[in-house]
Recover the amino acids of this structure.
């Protein structure tokens, strides 16, 4: 068998152009990573995506990655850069190029369901995630204090639907859940409740409220004076979550020994007493007849630290999130409700306060 010739060395930019399948660049478009995709803003200021040709080149790159070890055994010269690209493309196609090339589209795509519509900012006409929004959606924060993002669109859509029902109306810019039996019910909730009963008919809602309880009478006055009333449809946002952030997140479902090297390094390096205590808890095996030998997950360790910091059994977690963020851990990742039983699959992500602007919003849907 003849010895294969030495491969032509390509720059990263040449590799990207090859993967895109075209060297042509048109004004107004942003070009993505190894996938043949380009994006631009439409008339509404939202980003639209167009998939072009180039799948054959992408497939060729993957085939090259899988056959590289055999070709090396047959005498082909293999550079360290090629070996690194092979390892990264086998584990996550396109990651190598995305990491090395500046300005390319980061992966993975994530989704956020909310009852709100974000105000535009100078940096993004679709708005940005803000730490002040934390807890204004579902509010449970069961997997840590932060902005929640889903890898599966269906999960985010489920939250959007639920949260839309929890905050059905906005009156003069303020959202109200409309449940008058809740302990936190306000006058506006009585007004929202009445609007819901009459399918948004303001006059019918006022007539129904005006002879009721003191709160209902105040709600009638509020509706009379209201300058704007709208039914909350909620929003489904699509965003980019930088790949490098995912690798630095605490994995809720895994024990300490299976965390990423960057997470292990950040935890071991920290001199904070609470983080040190969390580490000791995670390293100490369970005792007791039923659970002896079972492995503790870092989700359990995080909850224990949260309870220690808050002094309450409900494990309010804002302080714990702040400590981990300061230690260099940007958030938490955990299996979503559809993957938890299988132990693998799609995940949700929690971005700690201070990290939320790194997830760039690309699209908004109702």
């Amino acid at each position: 068998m003849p010895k294969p010739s030495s491969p032509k060395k390509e720059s990263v930019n040449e590799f990207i152009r090859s993967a895109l399948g075209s060297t042509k660049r048109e004004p107004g478009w942003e070009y993505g990573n190894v996938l043949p995709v380009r994006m631009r803003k439409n008339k509404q200021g939202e980003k639209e995506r167009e998939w072009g040709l180039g799948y054959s080149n992408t497939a060729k790159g993957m085939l090259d990655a899988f056959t590289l070890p055999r070709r090396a055994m047959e005498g082909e010269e293999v550079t360290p850069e090629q070996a690194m690209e092979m390892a990264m493309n086998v584990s996550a196609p396109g990651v190598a190029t995305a990491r090395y090339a500046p300005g390319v589209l980061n992966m993975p795509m994530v989704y956020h369901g909310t009852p709100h519509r974000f105000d535009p900012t100078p940096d993004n006409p679709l708005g940005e995630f803000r730490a002040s929004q934390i807890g204004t959606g579902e509010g449970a924060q069961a997997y840590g204090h932060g902005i929640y993002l889903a890898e599966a669109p269906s999960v985010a859509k489920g939250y959007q639907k639920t949260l839309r029902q929890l905050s059905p109306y906005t009156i003069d810019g303020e959202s109200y859940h409309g449940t008058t039996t809740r302990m936190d019910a306000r006058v506006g909730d009585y007004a929202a409740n009445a609007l819901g009963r009459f399918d948004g008919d303001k006059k019918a809602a006022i007539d129904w409220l005006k002879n009721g309880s003191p709160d209902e009478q105040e709600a009638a006055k509020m509706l009379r004076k209201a300058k704007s009333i709208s039914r909350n449809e909620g929003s489904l946002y699509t965003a980019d979550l930088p790949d490098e952030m995912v690798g630095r997140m605490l994995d809720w479902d895994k024990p300490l020994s299976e965390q990423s090297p960057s997470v292990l390094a950040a935890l071991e390096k920290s001199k904070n007493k609470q983080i040190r205590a969390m580490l000791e808890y995670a390293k100490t095996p369970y005792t007791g007849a039923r659970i002896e030998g079972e492995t503790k997950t870092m989700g359990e360790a995080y909850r224990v630290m949260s309870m220690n910091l808050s002094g309450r059994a409900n494990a309010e977690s804002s302080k714990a999130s702040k400590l981990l963020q300061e230690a260099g851990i940007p958030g938490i990742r955990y299996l979503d409700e559809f993957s938890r039983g299988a132990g693998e699959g799609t995940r949700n992500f929690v971005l700690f306060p201070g990290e939320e602007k790194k997830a760039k919003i690309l699209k908004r849907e109702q």
